[in-house]
Amino acid sequence: MPETPYRLIRPEIHSTSVIFSSPHSGREYPRDFLRATELTERSVRSSEDAFVDILFDRAPDFGAPLIAATAPRAYVDLNRGADELDPAVIRDVSQTVHNPRIASGLGVIPRVVSNGRQIYRGKISREEATARIDRYHRPYHAALRQLLQDSHARFGEAILVDCHSMPHEALEGVTPRGAKRPDVVLGDRFGAACGAHVIEEVETIFAGAGLRVARNAPFAGAYIVQSYGRPSRRQHVVQVELDRSLYMNEALVRPSDDFESFRALMTEVVAKVTALGRASDMALAAE
Question: Which pLDDT band, with edges at 50, 70 and 90, does 280 fall under?
Answer without folding.
Answer: very low
